[in-house]
Amino acid sequence: MIPEIELKSTGEIKLFQEEKLRELMAYVAKNSPFYQNRFQEKNIQYQDIKTLEDLTKIPVTTKNDLQKHNDDFISVDRSKIIDYVTTSGTTGTPVFFGLTDKDLDRLAYNEAISFACSNVTPDDTIQLMTTIDRRFMAGLAYFLGARKLSAGIIRVGAGIPELQWDSILKFKPTYIIAVPSFLLKLIEYAERNDIDVNKSSIKGAICIGESLKTQDFSLNKLSKKIKDKWYINLFSTYASTEMGTAFAECEYQQGGHHHPELIIVEILDENNQPVKNGETGELVITTLGVEAMPLLRFKTGDVVQAHHEACKCGRNTLRLGPVVGRKEQMIKYKGTTIYPPAMYDLLGDFPEIKSYVIEINNNEIGTDNITIKIAVKEQSKEFVNQLKDHFRAKIRVSPDIKFVSFDEINALKFPKLSRKPMLFIDKRKANV
Description:
Blueprint: H1 10-31, H2 33-42, H3 63-68, E1 81-86, E2 96-100, H4 101-117, E3 125-128, H5 137-149, E4 152-155, H6 161-171, E5 175-178, H7 180-192, E6 204-207, H8 221-229, E7 233-240, E8 245-248, E9 256-257, E10 263-268, E11 280-287, E12 298-307, E13 319-320, E14 325-326, E15 331-333, E16 336-338, H9 340-347, E17 353-362, E18 368-376, H10 381-395, E19 400-403, H11 406-413, E20 424-426, H12 428-431
Parallel strand pairs: 3-4, 3-5, 5-6, 6-7, 17-20, 18-19
Antiparallel strand pairs: 1-2, 7-8, 9-13, 10-11, 11-12, 12-13, 12-14, 15-16, 17-18
């Protein structure tokens, strides 16, 4: 189920996207109050935006724009909106998105071709280990995508390893959708209850929310821990509510594939200019085919690297590597720039650490300060020194380490109404 456009040459893909872009410009100029005002303020004639290069004539759209003018992005009569979702609010106030019937069809199509990209077929059954409620777009997308693909789906929801294994043993799904660290909890439960994970029906996991790879696409510590015990395929995905689109890995697992019929991608530097091939920058997206709340040049806040070489699977679309970090979560610590994923990987080197959260705060002189709260079975000064030495060796600085209870970690990781674990807590804005 590979869309024909994804097998075309890069030149043909570009022409295809430019035709879709012109349709989008006419649509937002007619229907979007936000972009109507933006075009008028900046004296932009939508007819002048004809090529992908012309996009630079349009100012970027920011998360602040969405927060301040949320209603102005609605481009249809409210009666046409049949589903509402909200962003997770990981880096700011959550915003809502409305979806029309057409938008839900687009969401289903996106997830169906993303599943197919990761080798899921109509003969497979998927066990969903994330929430489908709490205004969470991803859970809804997975359900709709499975239906579109004609695959089976079991909606178990998040957590509860006992219920997950009961469903696996009873219904025999072939794929699971989960946060990678939860797979470790499934393995631990299986080991305690004499379940052989490698004799189960599961052959692959679609993983969300946490990275599985390093920038060269080798397995990171988390995925190595999983695959050391459970011999299943692990597929990385990247998506967001704002784009309503996923970047899914194929069987060659060299980055998430772009769906050019659904989204235009730019990788921009600090000055909102395109980076050179091979350089990292902020992912900026323009949605295609969205009816209720289309976006032009939306800054996702995620720092990524694009890969443009043709993939062995036959697709000629660009691929996104693992997210380097979120721009809002960039830490300047003792002259070194750090993103949280680098620290997650280092903490994964220590099996003694059963759970953790990273807190970033402003110290008394106004610079960033990092505290890592860890839960371990046995506390010792020697272990703290070992952990700090490891950080110094790998990223040249060492954070403060604080032992706390498992209950305290869980309270921090799973705040009320949270839809996913919070490993990074940024308190800098609260103190400004």
